[in-house]
Amino acid sequence: MILRRESEPPKTVWTDPLCNAEAHGTDMIKSILGGGFSYPKSLYAVHEALTFAVSGKKKKL
């Protein structure tokens, strides 16, 4: 992780195509619900984040 300034919060960059928010977030929500909402996240990115957050925990989600 490279920070430009010490006060700058770290940024996350998803490189896996499954984490594309437009294709697997916006478009997926529109196809299911017929409409969307502001800034939907990729279903797969959410899955990866939750998997990371609970890894090594005894009581997982």
Key words describing this protein structure:
single chain, 61 residues, mainly alpha, 0% strand
The rough form would be described as: extended
Low-confidence spans: pLDDT under 50, at least 5 residues? Answer: none
Average pLDDT: 79
Order of helices and strands: HH
The count of DSSP E runs of length 2 or more, i.e. the number of strands, is: 0
Summarize the biggest pleated sheet: none
Radius of gyration: 15 Å
Q: How many alpha or pi helices?
A: 2
Structural class by secondary-structure content: mainly alpha
Span from first to last CA? 28 Å
Share of residues in helices? 40-55%
Strand content: under 5%
Overview of the molecule:
The chain has 61 residues and is an all-alpha fold. The chain has a domain at 17-54. 41% of the residues lie in helices and 0% in strands. The longest helix has 13 residues, at 21-33. The radius of gyration is 15 Å and the shape is extended.
